[in-house]
Known about the structure:
Blueprint: H1 28-37, E1 40-44, E2 49-51, E3 59-65, E4 68-73, E5 79-85, E6 90-91, E7 102-105, E8 109-115, H2 119-125, H3 127-153, H4 156-171, E9 176-178, H5 183-190, H6 194-206, E10 210-212, E11 218-221, H7 224-231
Antiparallel strand pairs: 1-8, 2-7, 3-6, 3-8, 4-5, 4-7, 9-11, 10-11
Helix pairs in contact: 2-3, 4-7, 5-6
Amino acid sequence: MQAYTGTNVSRLPAAAAIVSGGTAAMPRRFDIVTTKLGGAPRNLTKGEELFAEGDAADFFYKVVSGTVRTYKLLSDGRRQIDEFHLSGDIFGLETSHDHRFSAEAVDDATIVAFRRRRFETLAHDDPALGDQVMSSMLCSLERAHDHMMLLGRKTAREKIATFLLNMARRISNDDRFDLPMQRSDIADHLGLTIETVSRTLTQLARDGLIKLAATSRTVVLCDKAALRRLNA
């Protein structure tokens, strides 16, 4: 895991500072969400912080487009990425009053923020949203359990295979997909160094399990059976 050397950005005031600027250009569905359910849409630029560890957890969020990472900075400066939240994912709904992780955009992203104290009302007014929140939380818990096992027991090759299979399923459910995150993000998520991530990806490509585009983050899974055996 690498020491976090990302560019510092000015912190947004806790999520309560969500503004309506720019919403006019958003699809009408955002207007419906905002007026009917009290959700506040917001655009994030790459690297922009949504909330920091210890901020009041007054809001929870749904990703509409793009990717958001949640992470902790360890005492020695290393960064541990807990999760990548993709389109449709709901995150930030805490059991305590404060956020346990920080959150920032991996790439340009759009999210909708919902007030935590209105969750019961939201679930009552729109049962589908309530079901979606519960389903997303259960999926997040399952991924957290898998991530714990991955960090503690798997080799670098097994970690990368597991990661690629999961991303393929979550991003496109296809054998060809574009990773939204950099290799430094992958390293900090899997508890590896950037060099190990790059070396392992290259070896998987040489072995014919994957293909890597030379100038992009496009990945093609060429031998999913072999990858699944590594993931077992």
